[in-house]
Every structure is written in C-alpha cells, then in structure tokens.
Amino acid sequence: ISYCTKCKTFYIWQDSFLLSLGYLQFESFVAATMRSNVKGNYFSFPDGDMRVLIDTPCPEIVFVFNETEWNDFADALSESTYMSEIYQMLSK
User: Fold this and answer.
1) How much is the pTM?
2) What separation in angstroms does the CA of 45 have from each of 26, 30, 39, 42?
3) Fewer C-beta neighbours within 10 Å, C or N terminus of the chain?
4) 87 near 3, Cβ under 8 Å?
5) Up-side HSE of residue 64: CA atoms within 13 Å toward CB?
6) Could you give the percent of the chain with pLDDT greater than 90?
C-alpha cells in the first residue's frame, strides 16, 4: 500500500492489480474490510488451498488472500491508516 502526497491517492497493489482510492474511499475500504467476518469468508479453491475473499469498491474485482497474505495485508492496512492520520495532521 502506498500513498502519493502529490495526488493524495492511496494505491493498493496486489499481484497484477492496482486499486487507487482517495482519502475517504480508502478510509471506508479499510473500515469495511477490517470489520468484515474474515474467518467466515475463507473458501476452498480448486487447488485445495483455503483463501479469503475481500470485496473492493469495484464489485468486479475481489482480492484473494491465503491466511499469511491476509495477515500481512491487514497489518499493511493498519499501518497505512496510521500514516494517513499523520499525513492529515501535517497537511493542516
């Protein structure tokens, strides 16, 4: 997850997808993602691995993570939220 201070856009990179969100969109995405029932969203895929499905603001795009990837992503969301609060304070 990266943030461009010039264009004030958050970028969420996942494999070959790039999701770009403004501040309010990012805030809403993080809130919805973190309060979702992740444990209930794990599904068995044809390769036998269990993966969690995470909706994005674009209904045609759904992020898919295994447990380790999900934990890393959740940590990155938390860190990005913290940093966005710092950016907001510095821009005032």
Assistant:
1) 0.83
2) 28, 25, 15, 9
3) C
4) yes
5) 9
6) 51
